[in-house]
Amino acid sequence: MSDKFNILVVEDDTTTGKVICFELKAKGHNSRYFENAEEALVFFRQNPVDLAVVDYTLPGMNGEEFFLEIRELNPLTPVIFITALQSVDKAVRLLKMGAYSYLTKPLQMAELHHNIKNALEKVTLVKENRDLQEKLQETFSFKNYVFNCQRMQKILHMVMRVAESNSNVLITGESGTGKDVIANIIHYCSGRKEQQLVKVNLASLPSTLIEAELFGAVKGAYTGAAANRPGKFEAANNGTLFLDEIGELAMDIQVKLLRVIQDREVTRLGSNKPIKVDIRLITATNQNLEESVKEKKFREDLFYRLNVIDIPLPPLRERKEDIPLLIDLFIKKFNQREGKQI
Questions:
Q1: Percent of the chain scored above 90 by pLDDT?
Q2: Are 120 and 1 in contact (CB under 8 A)?
Q3: Distance (Å, rounded) from C-alpha 37 to C-alpha 11?
Q4: Which of 29, 120, 202, 291 is least buried, going by the fewest C-beta atoms within 10 A?
Q5: Cis status of the peptide bond prior to 59, with omega within 30 of 0
């Protein structure tokens, strides 16, 4: 096991305790040794501990009492008991209370290592599951979508109603108003929630790559196309495709996008073979597309295809009660992404 873990050793026999710590450090782990439970408990309260190896018979607070204390502080920390006493009843009682295992002296290091290895694998699995749950909560939980103002609450109710349809949605609003959040809610409240939500920020793509990025390309279609490449429409098949900053799309790509929406099929760049796609299309923009239509910068027919359901989001200056909570949310997301605390 290559990961380094923090292991607490509580053993009143100094020789045994130091041998265990030496063996643990040889395996690459961090270990801290204490001869009594009282000092070990102080350390446990102040430091991360992944696993505890505890002698049952200790001066003062015994191992069972120590176990009950740390279980209150962190019930997920596995505890391996060691004792010179041969007591099946005691072992069964401790295991029923939640101890990981119970070993008797004279201690066999191979047996201890085997128990520690299995316990730490369990710790790793628990951590991975917890991280996954946090990720899923970040993705699915509306507690993270902070809307305090009444206008946004009404919009959210409307979004929940339209999520089940397959109609195209156009989300409009200034930067920072939560267009990406609304797209998440629509997808994860829809019948397509088990499928992919594919996001594309069109403003971040070079104009020369947008067609291949959206519709795909075959080998040799352009310089550097060394293999067939599916586009975002294919990647989102049976799911949802979110195209952010749709107002940035060039006219020639608008024509191709319109054709895909109408025919429900894409043709990769360099190919003449259409590929059927089944997607829910959500688009967003911080521009006034109706003005862009009047100025001949955006196709009217495409606009009406995209704007089947219109969700306009008010700017933050009109929903100031949302700003403090949004700041907290953005800080939390930054900390998670960067592994920092600010």
A1: 58
A2: yes
A3: 9
A4: 291
A5: no
Residue range 128-175, pLDDT digits in tens: 766 655 554 555 555 455 566 778 878 888 888 898 899 999 999 998
The sheet carrying 101-104 orders its strands as 30-34, 6-10, 51-55, 79-83, 101-104
Q: What is the pLDDT of residues 287-336, one digit of tens each?
A: 999 999 999 999 999 999 999 999 999 988 888 877 777 777 677 767 76
3-state secondary structure of 96: helix
The two three-digit tokens of residue 216, written as one number: 């795909």
3-state class (DSSP) for residue 309: strand
Distances (CA, A) of 190 to 4, 238, 244: 42, 12, 19
To which residue do tokens 């009660």 refer? 321
d(CA 144, CA 123): 27
For 38-61, b/e burial (b = at least 16 CB within 10 A) is eebbeebeeeebbbbbbbbebeeb
Distance between CA atoms of residues 290 and 209, nearest Å: 26
What single-letter DSSP state applies at residue 168?
-
Q: Using CB atoms within 10 A of its CB, is residue 100 exposed (0-12), middle (13-18) or buried (19+)?
A: buried
CATH 3.40.50.300 residue spans of the chain: 147-316
Residue count of the chain, please give it: 342
Q: Which fold has domain 6-139?
A: Rossmann fold (3.40.50)
Is CATH 3.40.50.10860 correct for 147-316? no
Residues 6 or more apart whose CB falls under 8 angstroms from that of 113 comprise 23, 27
Give the pLDDT score at 84: 78
pLDDT tens figures, 109-140: 999 999 999 999 888 877 776 665 555 455 55
